[in-house]
Amino acid sequence: MEKLKFVHLTDTHMNAPGADNPFAKLNLADKVKRVFEHVNAASVKPAFVVITGDLTHEGNVQDYEYIRSIVDEGSALLGVPVHVVLGNHDHRAPFREGFLKEAPSEQAYYYSHTIQGFRLIGLNSQVKGQHHGEIDAEQLAWLEETLSTPAEHGTIVALHHPMLNINGMPGDHVLANREQLGNVLEGTDVIGVVAGHVHTNNVGTYKGICHVAATGTAFGGEAAEDNHFKMVDFCGYNVVSVYEEGVTVQTIVMPGMQDEFFRFPVEALMAHN
Ligand SMILES: [Fe+2]
Ligand SMILES: [Fe+2]
């Protein structure tokens, strides 16, 4: 019997209209709007939506205000909460000011919400000014304390940097202190971890826990010839269903031509995930 279903989006890389960067010209917010419409039209009826980071592409306050309006529209359309975490292309101070509507600060953004007996924990793996990700000691201590009391139906953890290696992908895409985080999660009521950052679907287990990195709504990443990497026009989302007996992940691919957006040497990959 299905206990809960939620929609996982990631790497939306949105900017406000008119923002001056190559990603802004691709109107990536339109893709997120289409995803919300698709979820609604397909009658997925999730309990919540979670977006696992790289909400913006180097966003400022105006970008986060705009993204908040997109997220609020999606939340109203589906009639469910939309929760977010931060990625390496996000910035804490403008996120707090533009998205959360509070005083700007560099305070890490992490939380625990209970939805229909499930606990959704969002972690902040983004490190100021860095491409790599890690969970700081304060969050690890908070997480350990939080998980010491099980939720009624179990816990889902959302973060940007994945804990699993991606076959053939160079660079420091994996969470730097995944072992530490894994040790905190192991043996608790956590039934799934959802992540992004790698712009490709990658599903497996870590410490025996289901772990999913999703492809994202903005673009897909693919290896190209001559040691290059390319970003192609791609958009998708995952429907994660939790059953008595386990978790399933359904990957939804939105219609698109998979045209190439950018291509760059593999060494430059760290700047583009
Ligand atoms: Fe990222
Ligand atoms: Fe990304």
End-to-end Cα distance, whole Å, is: 37 Å
Largest beta sheet: what is the strand line-up?
4-5-6-7-9-8
Small-molecule components bound: fe (ii) ion
The proportion of residues in beta strands is 25-35%
| Whole-number tally of structural domains | 1
Can you say what the CATH homologous superfamily is?
Metallo-dependent phosphatases
- Could you give a short account of the major beta sheet? 6 strands, mixed
Any idea of the CATH topology? Purple Acid Phosphatase, chain A, domain 2
Principal-axes shape call: globular
Q: What's the CATH class label?
A: Alpha Beta
Order of helices and strands: EHEHEHEEHEHEEEEEEEE
Mean pLDDT: 92
Helix/strand class:
alpha/beta
Q: In percent, how helical is the residue content?
A: 10-25%
Low-confidence runs (pLDDT<50, min 5 residues)?
none
* CATH-derived architecture: 4-Layer Sandwich
InterPro entries: Calcineurin-like_PHP (IPR004843), CNP_phosphodiesterase-III (IPR050884), Metallo-depent_PP-like (IPR029052)
Family: Belongs to the cyclic nucleotide phosphodiesterase class-III family.
Organism: Paenibacillus glycanilyticus
Pfam families: Metallophos
Q: Can you characterise this structure?
A:
There is one protein chain. With 273 residues, the chain is an alpha/beta fold. The chain has a single domain, classed as Purple Acid Phosphatase, chain A, domain 2. The protein has 5 helices and 14 strands. The protein has helices at 28-41, 61-78, 92-99, 137-147, 178-185; strands spanning 2-9, 48-52, 82-85, 111-115, 118-122, 155-158, 190-195, 202-206, 209-213, 220-224, 228-232, 236-243, 246-253, 260-265. The strands form 3 sheets. A 6-stranded mixed beta sheet has the order 4-5-6-7-9-8, with no helix packed on it. Helix 2 (61-78) links the parallel strand 2 and strand 3. Helix 1 (28-41) packs parallel to helix 2 (61-78), helix 2 (61-78) crosses helix 3 and helix 4 (137-147) runs parallel beside helix 5. The N and C termini lie far apart (37 Å). The mean pLDDT is 92. One fe (ii) ion is lined by residues 11, 13, 54, 87, 89, 197, 199, 273. One fe (ii) ion (FE2) binds at residues 11, 13, 54, 87, 89, 197, 199, 273. Keywords: Hydrolase, Iron, Metal-binding. Residues 4-200 form the Calcineurin-like phosphoesterase domain. Belongs to the cyclic nucleotide phosphodiesterase class-III family.
